[in-house]
Structures are given as C-alpha cells and as structure tokens.
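Think of the structure tokens as a kind of shorthand, similar to the way a musician reads notation: each symbol stands for something richer, in this case the local conformation of the backbone. In the example below we present two proteins back to back. Begin with the first one, reading the sequence and then the tokens, and try to describe in your own words what changes along the chain.
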Amino acid sequence: MDTIEFENVSGIRTRKKMKKYARRTAGSLAGMFLVTVAFAYLLHYAGAFCLPYIARTFESFLSLVFGTSAMQSHAAAQDLYTSVMFTEFVSMLSELLTFILPFALFSSKILSQNFGESFSVSGKVKPLQMIAIFACAQFMASSAAMLTDKIAGFIAPSFFGSGTSASQMPEVSLTLPDLAVYFLSLCVFTPIAEEYVFRGIMFKSLRKYGFGFAAVASALIFGLAHGSVSQLAFAVAFGLVLAAVYEKNGNIIGCVLIHALNNASNFFFMVYLPERTDVVLTSQLNLIYNVITGVLAVIGFILLFSGGKKKTAAEPAGQKEQLLQEQQTEYSEQLIKFEQSESSEQSENSEQPKTPEQLKTAEQFQNSERSENSEQAEQAEQDEQAEQAEPSVGLSAFFSPCTVLLILLFIWNVYVYYAF
C-alpha cells in the first residue's frame, strides 16, 4: 500500500513538473511571436519615417542616371511605390527579417534545434494523398469559419457585420508580373515560412508534452496570428489538420504542399478569376470546385484518420523482441549444458544413484532460470507499454502571461478590423 501511494504521489509530481515545463515552452513561443510582431511594427514605423528620404534619394538617382526631370522621376517613383510587385517584395523581405530569422535564431540558440531538424524533408510524401487531405482540411476549416461567423453575427450583428474581407486584393488592375509576384508571395513564400515556424519549430518543440497539447497549442498561436474571428476559426482548424499531417509523415513537405494548395485556391478564385472572367463564370467554377473538394474531402478524412503507426515507433518493440529471443536462447544453451553435465556424471557414476539433494538442486536451478526469464519478459513488456504510452498535459498548460498577452493583442486586432 505504501508503495502504491508513493507511485501515485510521484506520478502527480511528474505531471505537475511536465505541465510547468509545457507552460514555460508555450509561453516562450508565444513571447517570441510577440517579439516578431514588435519587430514588424518597429520596421514599419522606421520605414515610414525614412521613406521620404529614401524617395528623394531614389528620385535623384533616376534623374542622374536617366536624365529625366524632377517631375518625371517623382511620377516614376510613385508608380513603383504603389505597385503590387514592389509591395509584395517589401512584404516578403519584412517577413524574412522580422519573422523567419528571429525564430530561426530562437530555435537554434534556445530550443537547440538546427534548421534541418525544424525543416525536416526526409521521408516520402504522396502528392495525391496530400491533395485529398487538403480538401478535407479546407472543408473542416471553412465549416468552422462559417459556424463562427454565424455565432458572432447572432451575438453582435451590428459589430461583426461591419468587417471587410482581408483576403481581397485592392481594386487595382493587376498586370501579369504583378500576378506572378503575388502568387510567389502568397503560394510559395508564405507557406514555407509559416510551416517552418508553426509546425517545424512550435509543434516540434511542444510534441514531447503530447500530440494533443502540441497540436492545439501550435494551432491556437497560428490562429491568433490572424486578425478576425472567422480567420481564427479557419486557421485553428486548418492548423490541427496540418499538425496531424506532420505527425503522420514526419516531415514538413506535406504541410507546405497543403498550405500552398489552400493559398493557391484563394488566389485563383479571389484574385486571378475576377481579373479575367465575369462574375457568372467565377460562381460556376466555384460551384464545380466545391463539389470536387467535397468528394475528395471524404477520401482525405479516411487517409488522415486511418490507422497506421510510423516506422520509428515500431523499432524499440522489435529491439525488445530480439533481446528477449537472445535471452531465451542463452537460457536454452545453459539448460542443455546442465543436462549434458548431468548425463556425463550419470554415466560416470551409473552405479551410484542421485541423492535427493542433487535432484533438488537441479530442480531449483531450472525453476530459478525460468522465473528469471519470465521476469525479464514481463519487464520488457512493461518497458514497451511505457514507451507507447506518451505523456500528455491539459490545455490549461497553454495559458501563461505571454499567451494571455497574445490573446489580448488578437482581441485588439479584431476590434480594429471590425470597428474601422
């Protein structure tokens, strides 16, 4: 009874310690995200302060090199600043400096994860399966976003009905180079950057506290990085699916592919088609796309949640079976040697029968060997069960001062998004 009580107390202490470390890790990740937000605001205001001086220098450079007048140089510079190509290049450069590089340094110096560990590309990814899982993820995320919109509109229709769609492009005519750069930014650069940070760094560093906690925590931070209630619901649901894909495949390529497909569909229906076709054709193509996505979503759901363990999880069990077989073989060899020695002694002393003490000693040897082998087998089975039973902490470990501050920042962004 005393042993059982001690084990229970020890287990409680272990869970409390694990919860403490989980809260600390999630808080540090949320705090690092807040630092990147501060870097982005600092770079924005620094750019706004330095922009007039940079503009004058650039206009003087145009006048000096091309021999244009001051008015012509000013007009050319204004066209460049307002172009989609220029703004997207600046956006990618800003995301690289204020988001990717800080998290890369944080991962290598604080979390002790190099780039190869965070951005793992080892293993095979089946593109057709990823397409089906993408359809499942988009269906689940869109359903969550629609349900959240309905609930928010029912609670406060005058407030939540005033927001504008943040995914729509400005009402400007986009040239082919503009579309190419926007596609590169939205469908290539952004998926790689976000999956590297949210799945490669955040989910991977939280995975030791259980898959459920790591998936929910990384998806929540991913959702809080967006600026509206519907985007929060969409991103959280989408992030949960991406975490499951990362857990199933063991690499980040599948997550990047699914994220890129989602952004590409938004680009095609919200940016490209409105520039090239009328509203009727766009709605018809959207209906066909939704039907195909619905069919693929069923296949993706089966692929995503079907059984199947990773190969790495089966290796320790195989090693234990091999060790157990070796122990059994060693026991058999010892038993054969003992029987041979006994038979030789019997042949030498055939006229002298075994005493009861000798028989008892042989029986004790066999029983001790068998009990030892049985104990080793039970211990191996217990070790295997302990490894298969992964640790887990509750969602309450997600909340820390940094995560609460991140939630408050999201609430402020929602207020700005809908009020202004």
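Once you have a description of the first chain, move to the second and do the same.
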Amino acid sequence: MWKGFRAARAAGRSLHARGGQPAPVTETAAAALSPPLSAQRIPELDAIRGLAALVVVLFHCWKTLPWPEYGPYGAPPLDASGLMPYEWLFRYTPLRIVTAGTASVGVFFILSGLVLALPMVRGRVDGYGSFLLKRFFRLYPPFAAAIALSCVLCAALDPGAVAGLSGWFNHSWDEPLRPGLVAAHLLMLGPDPYLHLDNVMWSLVHEVRISLLFPLLVLAVMRRPAPMLAAAALVLGVVSYSGVFLWMRHQLDVVGPWWPLATLLDTARYLLYFVAGILLALRLNGLVEALRRSGPALRGLAWCLGLGLLLTRFGPFGDAAWALGAALLILLCLGSARARALLRAAPLQWLGKVSYSLSLVPLPLLLALMHMFADSPRRLYALAALPPLALLAAGLFYRCVEAPSQRLGRRLLQRPVVAADLPTPA
C-alpha cells in the first residue's frame, strides 16, 4: 500500500506536467509565505482548529438554554418565550457564530483530512501500524480520560432533569451509570444512548473509524480525485435523503436491530469532509497561490461566501455547503499575510495546542455546573463562567493527559528514521 503512495505521487507529478493541476507556487510567492506551505507543520492550521473548538464550547453554552431549536432537519421549536426578545441577536449580528457549532465540527474534519494527508502526498510516509499507533495515542487515551471524568462528576452529582434548560442539555446524564453503559462509550459503538456521558464524542467516533481506512482513502483520492469526490458527495446525498436519514436516526436513537448498519452509514456521511481535506493537501500550493493572485474584490467575495456557507443552515444537505465553506476559509487564511500573522499569535497557537482537550473536557464541566446550580438564581452566571473555566481546564488536561499520551506514543515508535519523515498528528 505504501509503495502505492509513491506511485500515485509520481503519477500526480506527471499529471501536473500535462497541465492537470494548478501551477506550483513561484519562488517569489513561496518566499512570501512564512513558514512555507511545504513545511512539515503549518501552525496556522492548529490555530484554526483551536478557534473551531472554542466556537463549539460557546455553541454548547448557547444550546443549554431553551432557544428555538434551529435544527437542520426541521425539529419542532422548544418553549423559548422568555428568550424570544433576544433571538434576533443570534440571527442578525456577529453573535450568529455562536450557533455554528455543527459547522465547526466540519472544520475539524476538513483539517484532519488535510493535516493527515499532507505527509502522505509529499512522500513522507511510515508503516500502516505506525500510523494507527500514532492515531491511537493521539486520540484514545485523552478520550478515555474525559469519559472517566464525566463518570466521576455524574456519580458525584446524581443528576436529574433541570427545569428551564433545553431538551438537548437534559438528554445528557439521563441514564444511571452502569458498567455496560460505560463500556459502550469506551468502545465507541455509536448509537445515541452511548454518547450521553460526553456527547461531543459523536464526531470522534466517526474520525476514529475513518482513520482506520485513511491511508487507503488518500491513495484512492490521489489516483482518482474527481471520481472519489463525486462518490463521497453521492454517499452524502443518499444518507441525507429524508427516508434513509429518518430510518438511520431511529435505529441510532432506540438502538434498533439494524443499528450497526445505521452507525456505519452515519460515518459514511462525513467522508466528504475528509476527501475534501485530502484534495486540499494535493493542491494546496496551487490553490493558495490562485487566491493570492486574485483581486481584492474577488477575495472579499470569497471571504463572504465562506463565512456565509458556514453560518447558514441548508437542511439535510448542509454538510456539503459547510465542507465547501470550511475549505474556502482555510485557503483564504493561508493565502492572506494578515490572517497568517494573526493565526501565528501566541494566544491562538496555545488555543490550537489544547484544541483537542478543549473539545473533550468542557461539556462534562458544563453539565456539572448546571446541575450544581440547578435551583440557583445565579445559574446564568455559572453558565457565563464556563468558557474561561473551559480554557483553564483544557490547559490542565493537555498537560496532565494529552501531552503525556503523545509522548508515550512517540517513545513506542522510536527507531532510526529521519524525523521529518514522521507525519505530524492532527
């Protein structure tokens, strides 16, 4: 399989020579990019991931209150009579970004596809076993620790439904802890009842599954980029079709007899994001250079289009729009000197470093805070305190769990290879 990467890469160079790919970045343009996009690590991508993780934290704070459910599949509105006077703020002002949590997960998926594919398409590949081991120590030990934290908090608080908060909030921690429930979470089985301890894990379930086949996916996209993109879009269209989608959701909601098929179909729905990320990796320099050479008016329109796609609900086919918006904004950020300088600022680089911890830890903290202040008139103050507390907790979790797990993975993989040949984990 790994020889196939080199063969596909050589074929890609041949296609480029025939005009099948955008022109490479010129020496002058490459010098203007610091660090160059050919570098082993592109730190701006870490910062984008960190910003997306922060948006998800704010989204969960917003979703804790009983706002009308702007669900992408026409879910009935919640009772939000007390909040209706403020609803316009989250529709027509920059605060709308707070409601873009699901689209931000799409940004995670695109970035994972891009960052994981970059070393492979550039020929810096390692064995499949080493790839899986890196992914395991990058993803699983922090995830298991977050589930353990949620179990401890849930057991200590013995929660029940909290009046005045949303159905989404009360859907978590709504079953008594038992060994089978915890095991189902740790095994990442996928149905909704097995996500309640830390429901952000739904996206991690799909990422882990796609990671198992990711090298093969990269190889297929390198050899047949257009057919693979069309196939991923077709899968999304089939799974998002109302009849299929409603059947799938029913199986996952009630753990029906066909739930294994339903959860695999649910994972297939997100293949488009990873295929798009791989395509960005294949043509990154040319696409960024094309945007850099476009006029200010065109770039301004592209920024508006990218933000508009991410901030708009498009119904069951919204994933296609979000994937396009995420890809466009990533390219625009990498092609703008000002955006790159901002993303390389120390606070945003720190945010990127702890982004995975920031994805895992805040929701158990949010659940605990709201149950602790369930009957308190200061409940909203506790909710407002969650974002800064989440940042502190993410930093601590990174130092105590995530970074040691990555170091252990690197120690297990130590052998006489060139350091640059090791792909940076997403």
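Compare your description with these statements about the second chain. DSSP finds 22 helices and no strands in the chain.
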